[in-house]
Amino acid sequence: MSLTVMVVDDHPMWRDGVARDLTEAGLEIVATASTGTEAITRAKATRPQVVVLDLQIPEPNGVAVTSALVADDPGVRVLILSASGEQDDVLEAVKAGATGYLVKSASRDELLDAVRRVAAGDTVFTPGLAGLVLGEYRRLSDTPAAKTDDPDAPRLTERETEVLRLVAKGLSYKQIAERLFLSHRTVQNHVQNTLRKLQLHNRVQLVRYAIEQGLDEDLKQS
């Protein structure tokens, strides 16, 4: 089955151009939209796997749309494609549930790669933005008190914990697979099992959990 995508942007030439590039690459465009209201309505009707979404669209804006899409379908992947690379915009989008953020200066190949990687479960950011997001999560979780000794807390296997530490460092599935001498599929399975155990919906939430538990600090010391 082909990868299904919805493209949301209020500029027709840009929206049509992105949709055309994705179609030519073999992806299936199931819907396009120019406003937040259209995006929410059409996503419910077409259930795309990935939504390529501009932040600055007629109300509701891209952050609100991201929240609504993820609340309605936790499995959907939202890739922000915005002219803004401002810290506040990036963090608000990620907190709303976006799993990727590219600025519009990205090349066609970078966009195609990002859509495919986001669909596969990776988080994808324009260079420099991933560190910004991880830094903010560490700032919010700057105390060991975030760790829990709750006996009822989910227990991860040693391998799941090892994979989670590398996820917290910002490595892609491919990089984790190469680091641990595992297949890409095995890494995906470990991440999906971890998400299920922790009752989380996407990799962005998983990164935040790992940092809150201090796993990224464990990695620095290992």
Written account of the structure:
With 222 residues, the protein is of the alpha/beta class. It folds into 2 domains: 4-126, Rossmann fold (3-Layer(aba) Sandwich); 141-221, Arc Repressor Mutant, subunit A (Orthogonal Bundle). It is built from 11 helices and 6 strands. The protein has a 6-stranded parallel β-sheet with strand order 2-1-3-4-5-6, with helices on both faces. β1, α1 (12-24) and β2 form a beta-alpha-beta unit. α8 packs across α9. Residues 141-148 and 218-222 have low confidence and may be disordered.
User: What is the total domain count?
Assistant: 2
Mean residue pLDDT: 80
Radius of gyration, CA atoms, in whole angstroms? 17 Å
Q: Which stretches of 5+ consecutive residues score pLDDT under 50?
A: 141-148, 218-222
Count the DSSP helices: 11
Please provide the count of β strands. 6
**What fraction of the residues are assigned to beta strands by DSSP?**
5-15%
Describe the oligomeric state of these chains in a short phrase: single chain
CATH fold description of the largest domain: Rossmann fold
The termini sit apart by 41 Å
Q: Main beta sheet: strand number and arrangement? A: 6 strands, parallel
The secondary-structure element order is: EHEHEHEHEHEHHHHHH
- Structural class by secondary-structure content: alpha/beta
What is the CATH domain class of the largest domain? Answer: Alpha Beta
Strand arrangement, major sheet: 2-1-3-4-5-6
Q: Quick one: CATH superfamily of the largest domain?
A: Response regulator
Gross geometry: globular
Q: What is the correct CATH architecture of the largest domain?
A: 3-Layer(aba) Sandwich
Helix amount: 40-55%
Domain Response regulatory: 4-119
GO molecular function: DNA binding
Keywords: DNA-binding, Phosphoprotein
GO biological process, one term: regulation of DNA-templated transcription
